[in-house]
Amino acid sequence: MQNILLKHGEIEYEILPQDIKRIVVAFDVRRLYFKIPRNHTNITIECIKDYIDINYLYFKNRISMAKNIVEKYISQYGDNIMIFDRLIPKNAANIDMLSDILLQEASILTQELSSKMELKCPSLQISYAKGYIAKCLTKKNIVKIDYRNTLCTNADLSYVIVHELSHFVYPNHSKAFWNHVEKYYPQCKLATKSVRKKINDNIVLLGYFNLLPDKYKNITQFRLRKY
């Protein structure tokens, strides 16, 4: 089966045979994507149509929400991308540039916050992961900040860094850990929810502007560990 672009009702969808082991359904502001194993002979267009029928309203709403996210952003920033209070023309932006800006901003905040928290300042790395927003490697004294944080605010990034630095004290998500996070970021309960939402919004926006690494493409949401 070759790549096929079809439409079912108001929903446009594309079938993408790939060298994968299981079916993946993703979406962006344009359409649905059905990534299917090349050697999967039981999947037919009719099967996919039936699946869309069953989940039609859900898919329609998700695509509509993605479009609203993009439209709202464009109405606010026009042909620019806002990265930590810097307006950059979207035509001038690229993945390496955004990664560098994220690393610079995260480095400044990490130095300030680790000093405030009386911790040794860890090394920072920008990661391109699906399963976490940021990650603390306590034995190596490294904090990984995921690329999807690029369009977050300074306040969002501060929370993420406080969260990870707190793992150097409590390598778990115990009550003591959360008390420690709250000590240095009092609004942590609100930030926990808002950061996760913004990360998913960022995937939509970065995908629309063609600023996602290949491993993220056509994916708008991930199953994240508790954050």
Explain this structure.
There is one protein chain. The protein has six helices and nine strands. The strands form three sheets. Strands 1-2-4-3 form a four-stranded mixed β-sheet. The chain has a three-stranded mixed β-sheet with strand order 7-9-8, covered by helices on one side. The protein has 227 residues and is α/β, with parallel strands linked by helices. A hairpin with a 2-residue loop joins strand 1 and strand 2 (11-18). The longest helix has 22 residues, at 56-77. It has helices spanning 45-54, 56-77, 95-116, 154-166, 175-184, 188-208, and strands at residues 4-8, 11-18, 24-27, 32-37, 80-83, 86-89, 123-127, 134-137, 142-146. The chain starts with a strand and ends in a 19-residue tail after the last helix. Helix 3 packs across helix 4 (154-166).
Give the ordered list of helices and strands.
EEEEHHEEHEEEHHH
Helical fraction: 40-55%
Number of helices: 6
Oligomer description = single chain
Uncertain spans = 220-227
**Biggest sheet, in brief?**
4 strands, mixed
Mean model confidence by pLDDT: 89
Give me the count of strands.
Answer: 9
Report, as a whole number of angstroms, the end-to-end distance. Answer: 40 Å
Using the CA coordinates, give the radius of gyration: 20 Å
Question: What share of residues are in beta strands?
Answer: 15-25%
- The geometry reads as elongated
User: Which strands sit side by side, in order, in the main sheet?
Assistant: 1-2-4-3
Derived structural class: alpha/beta
